[in-house]
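Trying the structure run again after the queue cleared.
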Amino acid sequence: MKKKNSTPLDLSGTGYCASFNFRRTARAVTSLYDTALQKSGIRSTQFAILVGVAKNQPVSIGALANVLVIDGTTLTRSLRLLQTEGFIAISNRAAMRQRFLTVTAKGERVLARSLPAWRNAQERFVATIGANYWLDLRNDLEKLAHVAVDLEKPQREVPDREAIGS
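Done. Tokens:
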């Protein structure tokens, strides 16, 4: 029996929406890693931020936002929670009015506690989809992130062809 369309809107093609498909996949993968990290006491999003800080410390909030491709406001909210938990330290405003992040000793301990669970989830995921496929996909995801960031930037004004010819 054919499903009756309950709306007069033309929704054809919306199943191919990049945002819908990426978000659906991201939720599924995030859930996998959240479940793996549950005993460590942090979520996969917190893990990603802590790793980003640990790999780049001291790192400015703006630089970390660029690395993680995350809105500054959203990142600041997450950083406050990590600071409240005692996992990161946020400096006072320094040169060029920037604040810098570092992982605290408590943050290092939670990372050390969560890394084995993360490694296990990562190994299972890669083993299931195949190492070569994962490397290719990871490279493609990196390219797509750059494309999306570039598309979000305001387009440069293109001079009017008639104005150029006159």
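The first strand starts at residue 59 and ends at 60. Worth checking whether this holds up in the mutant runs.
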